[in-house]
Amino acid sequence: MISRYTREEMGRVWEPENRFRKWLDVELAACEAWHKKGKIPKAALARIRKKADFDVKRIDEIEKTVKHDVIAFLTSVAEHVGEDARYIHMGLTSSDILDTSLALLLREAADIITGDIKAFMEVLEKRAVEHRDTVMMGRSHGIHAEPTTFGLKLALFYAEMQRNLERIERAREVISYGKLSGAVGTFANIDPFVERYVLKKLGLKPEPVATQVVQRDRHAEYFSTLAIIAASIEKIAVEIRHLQRTEVLEAEEPFTRGQKGSSAMPHKRNPILSENLTGLARLVRGYAVSAMEDVALWHERDISHSSVERVIGPDATILVDFMLARVTGLIKGLVVYPDRMRENMELSRGLVFSQRVLLKLVEKGISREDAYRIVQRCAMKVWNERKHDFRTVLSRDREVTKLLGPGELDSCFDLKPYVKNVGYIFRRVFRRRA
Question: What domains sit in the chain, N to C, each tagged with a CATH number?
Answer without folding.
Answer: 1-90 (1.10.275.10), 93-254+264-347 (1.20.200.10), 351-412 (1.10.40.30)
